[in-house]
């Protein structure tokens, strides 16, 4: 799905500047508190609920099938033979066949499996191993390098191997070797060029069908494709072989599975594979399996997936601010995107559908409660799921009651989830300000780490090591402390969570050790008041911290001057310029020069000048030697003090208006008030970044920054006091039109559809025209300023 570019400038060193939006791992957009590992199906880990629902890379990462084959060989040869795996699966066909044909085994002579094979009585087993290695070599597109003469390629070689295998098969009477030669012949027939398809079925049915060996289970895959009931046989193979799971899952379609299940609804394996392919509601599949096989080994996986779906649908919007990416992609696949129309249809219906998802959550919970049975080996998974769904539904007391009846025992995964649910309920019910509660939190959080939970900085996200459980929990804790107006605790928990949320907080994957990084202050930038920064610095330097305070403390603190710079910015937003200057004077005067990567947005030209926006103003003599908030604030404070001494001076109001405009969203010194600026704050197509351009900016102070209200107030006073000063009034009106246009552009950019469809591809909107330009023309059309503006300013022209 194409993503519309959102051009962001990130204005602190070592922060990335994205031109096409952040490229995050998809599961970062998803709330996951219920551990997918509770499925207890490591081979199917790829098919836990995630964005890539159709991909299973390896159905047997633990190599259970290979180990099973090794055990069968050991049982056949007798004795203790620990080295079977290395020759079977680690020694290449090339190396084995060379040693076999030249009797050169010196490099592996100490191998116990080889020693057994080299015994004279076991020569038939050695010959079979050589044959199997030849088939393996041939199967993967490599022709036997030791066959010479008129070999025309793979087909000819397959025919030769098939004939060789038939002869060996006929010679042996050993049941073990008979089965394995039969398996190799089945493979050679299936891959073409040898025998007939009918002979494949005969060979399998005669020598492999109904056997409990690994080759019988592997051979069933090839046999299935020779039969009319292929889908049913493939589902059976899926259960019997780990290695073949990936291929079977990819091969079977939902249509084939649905057709089979209409004929045979009592087939748990088919239901299970169908459930893995279902991105939507799948309770009916869970129910169908439980009716037929209540203790089916893979049933917990579908239950865990259903809980993870509900988390995505209900909690991702509430906690992270994102709609379900998986639902959104499914929706997108069903629409006709040929016209490339960008609309908000999905976002609109997702909001309406949230209530339905909450009702479905209760339906799933009620069903799981109905199947809870302690004799069932899956009881703990279902019980934890019920407690989790009560927590998700805001019924924390009932969740705690459920947890009281659960004994996780020594199982680390169960205990991790049990503690997680305890904390999820407690942060909504306990007295968060209580020291004893915080102490309990610290004990439980540290135990989660000991049980294997990971913070973001401990994970290799590039390798898909995504464990969102503890980070999501810390984010929820942060949000609860925010409701208690404990900004310091909330902000530090937010930093420790390090979760991607629908807002701008800087984007870095790896553990970030950079001290001056927007991520160090982002939460406080958007939620704190200046006095909170003093509390934060006191917390930083406190010599004695409780266990909870130690846990929430960042691994890397920013230097004090960076926190003071934040306080200064917060004060500027409140127009407390004298206090902001006092903070600046406490700081290293070179801080902004040395640490602001985009310091060009701290103007070098006089802050009270409109510069190129007004003809004749570009040559203002005053300039700043370097990027320096202290020098800029001194001039703003001087203008403010001068106005108090001469309150009716129109030119001072004009200069102050220019200063306030310059530190607004559209001005050239906006960095005095903010840490970042988005060029496009529209709906971020495909993800929903509706708050992606610093629009929070301490919401109480948006009027002055985004809508120029403070600057406009000064310009209005300049007009009121500037009667008779036509050239000055013309300049004021021109700047008012600039503010007017910036304000209108911001409001337009923030437009977001509340109806089912909003088309962002429309280009029929008229260019904005400020009425202040009409006033300028009517009242001051004869001024030099107006004449110059007509030549220099397209809007005036």
Quick summary:
The two termini are 42 Å apart. 55% of the residues lie in helices and 1% in strands.
Defining traits:
797 residues; mainly alpha; 36 helices; 2 strands
- Biggest β-sheet, characterized? 2 strands, antiparallel
Beta strand count: 2
Low-confidence stretches: 1-24, 148-152, 337-342, 679-687, 690-695, 751-764
Strand content: under 5%
Residues in helices, as a percent range: 55-70%
Assign the structural class, choosing from mainly alpha, mainly beta, alpha/beta, alpha+beta, or little secondary structure. mainly alpha
How many helical elements?
Answer: 36
Which radius of gyration do the C-alpha atoms yield? 35 Å
Shape, please? elongated
The averaged pLDDT comes out at 86
Output the strand order for the largest sheet: 1-2
Q: Give the N-terminus to C-terminus distance in angstroms.
A: 42 Å
Describe this structure in words.
By secondary structure, the chain is mainly α. Among the domains are: 63-195, no CATH class; 567-792, no CATH class. It has helices spanning 64-77, 84-90, 93-102, 112-117, 123-139, 154-171, 175-190, 197-207, 214-224, 230-240, 245-251, 254-263, 268-276, 283-292, 299-320, 325-334, 345-371, 379-392, 396-404, 412-429, 435-450, 469-483, 487-497, 522-527, 530-541, 547-552, 560-573, 577-584, 591-595, 629-645, 650-662, 702-707, 709-721, 726-749, 771-780, 784-792, and strands spanning 8-10, 676-678. It has a two-stranded antiparallel sheet. Helix 7 packs parallel to helix 9. The chain is elongated and about 115 Å long.
